[in-house]
Amino acid sequence: xxxxxxxxxxxxxxxxxxxxxxxxxxxxxxxxxxxxxxxxxxxxxxxxxxxxxxxxxxxxxxxxxxxxxxxxxxxxxxxxxxxxxxxxxxxxxxxxxxxxxxxxxxxxxxxxxxxxxxxxxxxxxxxxxxxxxxxxxxxxxxxxxxxxxxxxxxxxxxxxxxxxxxxxxxxxxxxxxxxxxxxxxxxxxxxxxxxxxxxxxxxxxxxxxxxxxxxxxx
Length: 218
Fold this sequence. Notes:
This protein has helices spanning 2-15, 19-22, 37-51, 55-67, 100-113, 120-134, 154-160, 168-176, 182-190, 209-216. It is mainly alpha-helical and 218 residues long. Helix 1 packs across helix 9, helix 3 (37-51) runs antiparallel to helix 5 and helix 4 (55-67) crosses helix 6 (120-134).
């Protein structure tokens, strides 16, 4: 139970990273303008997970990578068009972040009933929550009301998203830059247990789990 609470607190912190920029967020933001929003997201996520169970973890990762750059604003969804360069080709994202097609499917279904109302940033946050819950993890009330970004930062994605080669001190520093604590870091690291990892970083296994626990609870 304590672990679930820590995970909930951390994921809520991610959802609130952009609250200062977008004003007061509320789980009931679309209660009048799109009352069926969460039912649409949940139904589409059930379909996606029945097709590929791994997708729940992938969308949680997508949400994390979105929030760590410019806040939870959907900027990770923007494609490269002309001179505009998005974040999809950043080193931490390319051939790593996936699930864009599921977000597109949810957006299409939402637009059928609530055209021009719900932001993609909010859809990403809801999809991450539902994917986690449907895989047996905790659920939480998602603060809603974000606006979609019209800008992206490839440079910030490359510099701020934590690389798998970072040691614990550098990870704590990277999370601290986003007002996330060592406890939040621990919870988000634990979120990897619902997905699949790529075995390209054998040195990471040398980190002592006891040292990790000691330093993240200090």
